[in-house]
What we know:
Elements: E1 4-19, H1 21-27, E2 35-38, E3 52-54, E4 60-61, E5 68-73, E6 87-89, E7 94-111, H2 118-121, E8 131-146, H3 154-160, E9 162-164, H4 166-171, H5 184-195, H6 202-211, E10 215-218, E11 225-230, H7 232-248, E12 257-258, H8 259-266, H9 282-292, E13 304-305, H10 309-323, H11 334-343
Parallel strand pairs: 1-8, 9-11
Antiparallel strand pairs: 1-5, 2-3, 2-6, 4-5, 6-7, 7-8, 10-11, 12-13
Helix pairs in contact: 7-8, 7-10
InterPro entries: Dcc1
Family: Belongs to the DCC1 family.
GO cellular component, one term: chromosome, centromeric region
Amino acid sequence: MDLRLTQTQPLQPVRLLELPPELLDLLESDHPPQLCLKSSAPTSTASTTTTTTTTSSSTTTASSTSTTTTTATATTASSRPGADFVNLCTPAKTFSLRQVNSSNSVFLIRPQVQGPGTAATVPTTTTTTPGITAVAQCKSTLEVQAMASSETALRPLLAALAVYDESDILMDERTEEDDHPLSPSEIVHERSKVFADIPFSRAECERAWKHICAFVHKNKESGAIGCHRPSARAKLMAWEKIIEGATLHGIDLGKQFLVEDLWSAVIEEAEHTVIDEYPFPRSLFDAIVRRLVDNSPIDGDLKWANLDQHITAQWTAELLLESSNGTPKAVLNVDTFSSDWKDLLPEQFRSYASIDNLD
Length: 359
């Protein structure tokens, strides 16, 4: 059968979006996740990234591959200058977008629409030739691929946060009168502004946030609220005070303890009354405790805790190495390192301080 092919002018530009089976299963589930496009912040401005919400669309299975193809109107990679890539994110996982150009033209067609009144002018003895019309042309394809396991939110998050160093701890002594804890909504708001420009899913951003002990802090002089990442020296100074307070007050960090009791021990309060000076911000203390408690969330009230021995030992060893002034060519004295490492661990964790136990 002969078909008459025509095309509209101009042709609508479209792109094919190839979805991996993993993402397709999520979109076809009873509760499909919300998708968003995220890119890194431009270097020329500090404005916040605007995420674009997408919804699942109809899909057709490609006969030659295991991926599924959907049609989507072509869009630019980002409406903001300075962003050179865009990632597609679910709430828990990140997928990269890769544009693939093809030398073959792909057209979207539809049955030819007969103009009004045409049927009345055609003699009944004439056979009408069926036709199709090309309405859009696809010159490239967007491939959606899961990010490699080596790609994490850690590096962009480190670059986005201001460093809170040991000098900040020494200068930022806060009295009880000065210390007004930020509300949970203020903390979430400040953290969300940072996450908006990190091109990874929220769950991956939260894991990286917890891993580096990031925290939201209010400057007592300027009143400015900002997100910070503590340096290795700052974390080491804070951890030494935590260990000292726990030891002097008989708090077993390997067993369940009240987090508020540990904080009271750290600030050396007598009979649970706050003294004049805080050794470091409470938000940094909370971040360190959450880092060392297995499966603890970054939000919510952490009333009770017990530190994970494996996580604590690994973290203190890494902290000791990172905070040292040694160069890559420096020779590590294993005995000295092991002794210093044990001094940073609770008594009941010290048997784990062996080089063989490091991952």
